[in-house]
Design brief:
This protein is α/β, with parallel strands linked by helices. The chain has eleven helices and 18 strands. The protein has two domains: about 325 residues, Glycosidases (TIM Barrel); about 100 residues, Sandwich (Immunoglobulin-like). An eight-stranded parallel β-sheet has the order 3-2-1-9-7-6-5-4. Strands 11, 12, 13, 14, 15, 16, 17 and 18 form an eight-stranded antiparallel β-sheet that branches.
């Protein structure tokens, strides 16, 4: 592995010198950099699109109808021709695409395989001018010893195409991160210098919910993103995996996304949209017959036969809340995030609003813009309602509800609330 890593750096650096001149003047580069749309949006994304035989206008309209605005296509679509067809269909329905490409896939699937720099530049040239391109995907869930190589690849792609970001989805705390998740995240941010911090966390296990780990990861990633002044997003569960993760119910779909929203996430990714094959179709990238991972998936938003499961409606409903609440927080600073259990503060800070009540199980996100305040209140539980009253700082008063899902207030008052399991409300203060 060490030998391969050195070889990879040599290849990439040589490609950077020889092949990557953009010809852009300084002012042109600044203009291109402002076109990184995905970094200035609230990202509602899904992984695993329709397989090749189902890549049709109707299927892509179905994705758009679910409120999904960004798609990591994949699912056996790895060639230039397949990805360009997907981008054409996506453009027609207003979706942006992050293509899985055969030229980066081998490195993701088998980390001892090196990438040909010329092939990477070819990939950029194939996609960079398509209006539906959102970003380039480099790899998923890297170990820390790959960060120096990923830094070089990220810089290579950024130089070749300043108008589009590159994405790497890193591990959660229960992944191969060593003994210290905070150190893993900090190392990644400082070494690779990503423009978007993306990670996944699937807390809905077959026999338990990793409640504390879920919130701890959110707090750590939020802190790292704020320190680096970059957005972050989290992939959450919208399927099940045999012997690992359970099928979410409606409240659990809401709980995952809404608790992340209160922690200031800039996007939510659904894993997965179309039920992946056990090896994700990645075996086509191998020279041998040894896929990196075999994990039977079931009950995704769309199942293997192409049928909508109940998760389609759950995710569609939640996406409508995110489209309003998430995009309504663009340009706002998530200055504080706090978690309360049974009315007691257990983590973070909430300087303006304090909940009261033994059933006040909440995440409270405080967002500031100019002289305005917007507060996200999300139930920290997926299995019980949160009933509480709100104590507001004397300098502020609640002026209205900006967006809500599964949230009700007492008649004529914004001070008494019930959030159903997973529910959330975004309120304005003046």
């Amino acid at each position: 592995m060490k030998k391969n890593a050195k070889y990879l750096i040599t290849l990439v650096l040589s490609g950077l010198i020889i092949s990557c001149g953009t010809g852009l003047k300084e002012d042109q580069t600044e203009t291109a950099a402002t076109e990184l749309t995905i970094l200035n949006d609230f990202i509602i994304m899904a992984y695993s699109g329709p397989p090749p035989e189902e890549t049709t206008p109707e299927r892509y309209q179905e994705i758009a109808d679910a409120g999904i605005e960004y798609l990591v296509a994949g699912n056996q679509n790895f060639s230039v021709e397949q990805n360009l067809k997907i981008m054409d269909l996506a453009m027609d329905v207003g979706i942006k695409i992050i293509p899985w490409d055969i030229r980066t896939l081998p490195f993701t699937a088998n980390q001892s395989i090196t990438i040909d720099t010329a092939a990477l530049i070819g990939m950029v040239n194939d996609y960079k001018d398509h209006p539906a391109l959102a970003a380039y995907l480099i790899m998923d869930e890297p170990k820390a010893d790959l960060f120096p190589e990923l830094k070089v690849i990220t810089e290579l792609l950024q130089t070749a195409d300043p108008s589009h970001a590159s994405t790497i989805n890193v591990n959660p705390s229960y992944g191969p991160v060593g003994d210290d998740f905070r150190a893993y995240i900090q190392n990644y941010v400082e070494t690779v210098k990503p423009k978007l911090l993306s990670y996944d966390h699937y807390s809905l296990r077959i026999d338990t919910t990793t409640h504390e780990m879920w919130f701890s990861d959110l707090a750590i990633v939020r802190e790292a993103a704020r320190a680096a002044d970059i957005p972050y997003m989290v992939f959450v569960l919208s399927e099940a995996i045999t012997n690992g993760f359970r099928v979410p119910d409606r409240a659990e779909i809401l709980w995952q996304a809404n608790s992340a929203l209160a922690y200031g996430t800039n996007g939510v990714g659904w894993f997965a949209y179309w039920n992946p094959l056990p090896d994700h179709g990645w075996s086509i990238a191998y020279e041998d017959d040894k896929p990196r991972l075999i994990e039977p998936h079931y009950n995704a938003i769309i199942d293997l036969e192409g049928n909508r499961t109940k998760l389609y409606d759950y995710v569609k409903e939640e996406n409508q809340y995110l489209i309003k609440a998430g995009k309504g927080l663009l340009g706002w600073d998530n200055s504080d995030a706090a978690r309360f259990e049974k009315g007691e503060l257990v983590q973070g800070s909430s300087p303006v609003i304090t909940p009261e009540g033994v059933d006040a199980n909440l995440i409270i996100g405080t967002f500031r813009k100019d002289e305005r305040l917007r507060i996200v209140l999300s139930n920290s539980n997926w299995d019980n309602p949160a009933t509480f009253s709100l104590k507001v700082s004397p300098d502020w008063e609640i002026s209205g509800i900006f967006a809500s899902i599964d949230a009700t207030s007492s008649e004529g008052s914004f001070a008494e609330w019930t959030l159903e399991p997973g529910g959330s409300v975004t309120i304005d203060l003046k």
